[in-house]
Specification:
binds ligand MGD; binds molybdenum atom; six-stranded mixed sheet; Rossmann fold; Dimethylsulfoxide Reductase, domain 2; 4 domains; alpha/beta; six-stranded mixed β-barrel; 33 helices
């Protein structure tokens, strides 16, 4: 991008005219306007398609324009008129394409034809589907051990495709089913079952209408789930306090103008979103929440001793929870000065937040990657649950825990068997239904798959969507090891880096997107997805396919499976492809409690919710109760000596102009950054201490002693409102800095929000910081 970078504060609200102009800009680019606009009216509608962007809930009574700026961008990006054809690949050698940016690769357009890498010319050449499936099948039959093969799944594929993919992997003989949630909400999937006996959130959209108070940790709603601003705005207008913890001041969490409300737009009226905004240090949430718990316990003690009504819900705690005494003992043992220095927040601020919590009858706790992508990711989540349990805020109207999921069906994929953990899958049921012996050995998650690839133990990688090499940590070692794989197969819509660093035998298999009409033998097909609030929705494509040579994801999965596996009458691949309703029947038979009357109910406005036991205060935990869990890491953290002052904690975050590794453009409007993504957002005091000037270019270097040098250069020093000791930059540009072992201890989610780094002036090492 040649545009001159510009960095200046953004004064507008989230949404508003900025959002309208941005949507307009997207739709008018390259003739996207006509199709795009008509199609957008179908987004998140009962007879339409589920947005391909985020997983936020779709209301039963949708707005005529039930989409947001970023949903519109995602749609336009998929409906682009540009094409990556065999001629494109003839013009560009792989070595050349490798020098292109993430943005330019995907901006080249939709993939149109199955392609196979040709060693002699170092190009991708067109291949027939038949030949592609035949060779992939033959290759898959050739590996010694099924555990040498990875079946990765990015979170967009439908419930139908995901069910088929997981079955394919298990029939092949492996539980190697890592997915994008291993980099995302796996901390949730480990934390919540221990705390409350379910792996998903307990909040429904309706709870937003009944809540008294919202606590918001580490999620950037204005950028990553903008439609959620509508229920938040409504809550705020009812006077519901919203208490936010985030190191960065994110505009969407501050104020919002609904671009779809004409009066608001004309009068320029804004709604404040957060009533309290606490700029916690990166990784400081456990200490912050512990501080709130301490304030609550102390005021409960006081109230009880003065004969006033208690602050804590002792009846709920007695009947429904376990571990309260140990937890309170821990809470009392922490000293305020330690909690203040760990969280970076003064006691008075934490007491003010606690007072807001104590006043409310029903509290929702919302969170995102700011909690899950830390070494303490699991404990972070459990600490939010501890806070909620103190006043019975789980399993009550208007209250609950609300993880904001990423990809549009990432939660649903887990529901239908995409998991490396065999204990989460009804293997006996699969065994009986499909008459085979499913593998019982735990498979590889994302980090383990990377380790296996680096060690050379993994021989083949099959990707159902996504951009694995770019999304994972340790870019240098991964890219090097990736090219030693025997087989890489990527089922994709757009060209990305994972296609270009490829195995010895490499295929790109282009597929239909969810917005496109999917015509099979019994007519146009629908698919289904599960949103962040466990509601399941039907989705029907409305746009003409990008190319006549595309196949649907279910078809590609079925053909690969048929080519790789011996035929089996119990698994009717062809019938499934002819009519996806038959896949839904199979899903219902495998998971009868979750998917009762699946085919009928999937068109219910607002979707149908899966049962979640904790919503009804049934606790499917080992103790049979909801558990208070003491975070051990806080003790350890408090015991550690102050870290070296020239090491900063780097948070890698998303801009308002990207979807994960898909870079739409170079403007991060809400953060006032234009024309570049190569910035390092820093506190002015850190800049002064490290002797860095605004606008100078620096190298970021990972500050760990494992003998590996990790660096990213050409980053522009940009002063920003971020706590001292913390800094921020963009994902995926900074992924080369993350050591593979730097992940949440219990869930193995890469700790992308707390990478220890040093900052060096380009060209010369800066001397040790002056202290
Ligand atoms: N438009 C758009 N939508 C998306 C995506 C996208 O890339 N673009 N990605 C999708 C996916 S897969 C996901 S997982 C979600 C991600 O959505 P988010 O969870 O919002 O993810 P991030 O942008 O990584 O930002 C996390 C937020 O956490 C804050 N944060 C960082 N460290 C800490 C901390 O230690 N404590 C606290 N309290 N906060 C912290 C950051 O300042 C930032 O505001 O969005 C989904 N939706
Ligand atoms: N440093 C750092 N790293 C991170 C994160 C972070 O916050 N910081 N976040 C992590 C998170 S939360 C996630 S979820 C992962 C994301 O990791 P992935 O899910 O692997 O990556 P995406 O960028 O979402 O994948 C984009 C590609 O998906 C393909 N695609 C798009 N639509 C479709 C479709 O309908 N079907 C098929 N088959 N393919 C499609 C396109 O070819 C596109 O190039 O990254 C993780 N990595
Ligand atoms: Mo994600």
């Amino acid at each position: 991008m040649s545009e001159k970078p510009k960095i200046e504060p953004y004064t507008g609200p989230a949404g508003g005219w900025g959002s309208v102009r941005s949507v307009e800009g997207i739709l008018t680019r390259e003739g996207r306007l006509v199709t795009g606009n008509a199609i957008l009216l179908k987004q998140n509608k009962p007879d339409g398609y589920a947005c391909v962007s985020c997983a936020w809930a779709k209301p039963a009574d949708p707005h005529p324009f039930e989409y947001c700026e970023n949903g519109a961008k995602a749609t336009a990006w998929e409906l682009t008129t540009k094409r990556v054809t065999p001629e494109f690949f003839a013009e560009h050698r792989i070595a050349e394409l490798r020098t292109w940016s993430d943005h330019d690769l995907e901006e080249a357009g939709r993939l149109t034809h199955p392609m196979r890498w040709d060693k002699a010319s170092d190009r991708y050449l067109p291949v027939s589907w038949e030949e592609a499936f035949r060779e992939i099948g033959r290759e898959l039959q050739g590996f010694e051990d099924p555990d040498q093969v990875i079946f990765y799944c990015s979170g967009r594929a439908s419930l139908e495709t995901s069910y088929m993919w997981a079955l394919f992997a298990r029939l092949y003989g492996t539980n190697n089913l890592p997915d994008s949630s291993n980099m995302c909400h796996e901390s949730t999937s480990v934390a919540l079952p221990e705390s409350i006996g379910v792996s998903v959130g307990t909040v429904l959209l309706d709870d937003f209408k009944k809540t008294d108070c919202i606590f918001f940790f580490g999620q950037n709603v204005g950028t990553n789930s903008p439609r959620m601003l509508h229920p938040l705005q409504e809550a705020s207008k009812r006077g519901v306090p919203i208490v936010t913890f985030n190191p960065l001041r994110e505009r969407g969490l501050e104020r919002f103008t609904n671009p779809q409300a004409p009066t608001e737009m004309l009068t320029g009226s804004e709604t404040r979103i957060s009533s309290q905004y606490h700029q916690v240090k990166a990784g400081g949430d456990i200490a912050a929440i512990m501080g709130m718990c301490k304030a609550l316990v102390e005021s409960d003690d006081k109230a009880c001793s003065e004969g006033r009504p208690p602050i804590l819900d002792h009846a709920f705690i007695a009947e429904h929870t376990h571990g309260f005494e140990d937890f309170v003992e821990a809470v009392r043992s922490y000293r305020w000065p330690d909690l203040e220095s760990q969280s970076g927040l003064p006691r008075a601020a934490l007491e003010a937040a606690a007072a807001e919590y104590a006043r409310a009858k029903a509290v929702i706790g919302i969170y995102g990657m700011g909690l899950t992508q830390h070494r303490t990711g699991v404990e972070n989540v459990q600490m939010v649950v501890n806070l909620l349990l103190l006043r019975g805020n789980i399993g009550k109207e208007g209250a609950g825990i609300c993880p904001v999921r990423g990809h549009s069906n990432v939660q649903g994929q887990r529901t239908v068997g995409i998991s490396e953990k065999p204990e989460l899958v009804p293997l006996d049921k699969l065994k009986e239904k499909y008459n085979f012996e499913p593998p019982r050995k735990t498979g590889m998650n994302t980090v383990e798959a990377c380790e296996g690839i680096i060690k050379g133990e993994v021989k083949a990688f099959l990707g159902l969507g996504g951009n694995f090499v770019r999304a994972v940590p340790e870019t240098a070692a991964m890219e090097h090891a990736w090219s030693r794989l025997r087989l890489t197969v990527q089922i994709s819509t757009k060209l990305n880096r994972s296609h270009l660093i490829h195995g010895e035998v490499a295929y790109i298999l282009p597929c239909l997107g969810r917005i496109e009409i999917d015509e099979q033998d019994t007519g146009p097909q629908a698919v289904s997805i599960e949103d962040s609030t466990t509601c399941i929705h039907g989705s029907k494509g409305h746009a003409r396919p990008a190319s006549p040579d595309l196949l649907s994801e279910p078809r590609i999965v079925a053909e690969m499976a048929k080519a790789a596996l011996p035929p089996k009458k119990e698994v009717p691949w062809d019938e499934w492809v002819a009519d996806y309703a038959r896949v839904r029947d199979a899903i219902e038979e495998t998971y009868p409690d979750d998917f009762r009357d699946f085919n009928e109910r999937m068109w219910q406005p607002g979707g149908f919710p899966r049962p979640v036991a904790a919503r009804d205060r049934q606790w499917k935990t080992k103790t049979g109760k909801a558990n208070f869990i003491v975070p051990r890491s806080l003790e350890e953290a408090l015991g550690l000596a102050e870290e070296s002052r020239d090491i900063l904690k780097l948070m890698t975050v998303r801009s308002n102009d990207q979807f994960n590794t898909t870079v739409y453009g170079y403007h991060d409007r809400f953060r006032g950054i234009k024309g570049t993504r190569r910035v390092i957002l820093m506190n002015r005091n850190d800049m002064a201490r490290l002797g860095l000037e605004e606008g100078e270019m620096v190298t970021l270097r990972t500050a760990v002693d494992d003998g590996v040098s990790r660096e990213v250069s050409d980053m522009r020093v940009t002063p920003y409102d971020v706590p001292e000791g913390c800094c921020a930059s963009y994902y995926p540009e900074c992924n080369p800095l993350i050591p593979l072992w730097h992940h949440a201890e219990r869930s193995k989610v890469p700790a992308a929000k707390s990478i220890p780094i040093r900052i060096e002036r380009m060209g010369a090492r800066i001397p040790e910081a002056a202290e």
